[in-house]
TrEMBL record:
EC number: 7.1.1.-
Keyword Membrane: yes
Protein name, per record: NADH-quinone oxidoreductase subunit H
Organism per entry: Streptomyces cynarae
InterPro entries found in the cross-reference section: NADH_UbQ_OxRdtase_su1/FPO (IPR001694), NADH_UbQ_OxRdtase_su1_CS (IPR018086)
Annotated spans, Disordered: 395-454
Keywords annotated in UniProt: Cell membrane, Membrane, NAD, Oxidoreductase, Quinone, Translocase, Transmembrane, Transmembrane helix, Ubiquinone
GO molecular function list: NADH dehydrogenase (quinone) (non-electrogenic) activity
Keyword Zinc-finger on entry: no
Similarity comment: Belongs to the complex I subunit 1 family.
A Pfam family that the UniProt record links to this protein: NADHdh
Organism phylogeny: Bacteria, Bacillati, Actinomycetota, Actinomycetes, Kitasatosporales
Residue ranges, compositional bias (Pro residues): 409-421
Compartments where found: Cell membrane; Membrane
Amino acid sequence: MSPYLAAEDLSMFGHDPWWLVVIKAVFCFAFLMVTVLFSIVWERKVVAWMQLRIGPNRHGPWGMLQSLADGVKLMLKEDLIVKRADKVVYILAPIVAAIPAFMAIAVIPFGPAGNEISIFGHRTTMQLTDLPIAMLYILAVASVGIYGIVLAGWSSGSTYPLLGGLRSCAQMISYEIAMGAAFASVFLYSGSMSTSRIVEAQHDRWYILLLPVSFIIYIVTMVGETNRAPFDMPESEGDLVGGFNTEYSSIKFAMFMLAEYVNMVTVSAVSTTLFLGGWRAPWPISTVWEGANHGWWPLLWFVIKVQLLLFFFIWLRGTLPRVRYDQLMKLGWKVLIPVSVVWLMLVATVRALRNENYGFADIALYVAGGVLALLLVSFVIDMFRAKAKEAERPAEEPAAFDPMAGGFPVPPLPGQTLPPVPRRRSRRERELIVSGGPDTVSDGSSDGKEASDG
């Protein structure tokens, strides 16, 4: 039996006094809030640096209090409620969107479970709590946040916020499927859904090296899950005015903005836990310094990794343009989900062979043979499919394109072309026509006929 499948021991959790649990919960809340305040300033400064702009430089030293000033400004703005809104749902939607964003941090380990720290004389772990199904808990609370966005668009009583909410719901659900498959690969390798156990299983090698495809899939899906550029479809100003939060103002709008940035921190923390060794020190430091993973030092390594992933979010926003919605959904359903499922089957096969004590050479041979067989089958299928399409292609020419079909202008379909645009006459030709010049004869006008008769 694989050592990863042994019974989990989470007895170090659940024995803290109530006041210590409150302190740890307040720490998790403060960690998220401070990281969000820093991330907003950092994003504005980094994007300004990328685009050769000044950026915030007025509020506080070097503009470091800009995000705090923005929060105060939003709180002091007039709080409006549109006339056609469902007031109860309209007010609850920002709360439903924001609260689940804070809940996921409860099971994220900031330090090793076996190395307890002392707080006011009590020994405790650097983690609020842990569960045997902690990763399923994270997926569950992340799914609840979608309801806040959908209800915000629906309760506004306006068309464009409703469209933004529906687009956001479709996008987040689509990308959560591939995200769950990426999680499943980690579960197979670690043999656990507990976050602390997943980090402990990476003591010799991080999963970014063992499961690189899962890491790439999760990086893409976490950008789509948080509605960040280039996947910020729900907030596409050119298409939907402002997205699901168009009719919101003041503190309720600030809560949607807070939920987005808290989700950024949460998914970065999850990525650090699953693929980047969690609280563990990077390779050169961990080998040279024995105390790098003891005491309060794991908190430093964890924060650095989270900040690097937040910089990745900012880098994407300042680099890539927004994609079209059909490209976004095609990437989620036709690329990420099939790739994640195939990769999951491959990882499951490798783990099953390892549990049967097969050698690395035998596993590589079996996997390579399976991949080649799959490629050969797909090539044969594509070849027969191409021949079938050639046989079914009609011999007659397609119908002419009517740009005003039904009385409204419509774009051409694939394979259709626009009719030729009539050539505009030059200014000299128009002057000759008006003055009765020689061009009137070739045009067949009445003046030309009279001239020819004379």
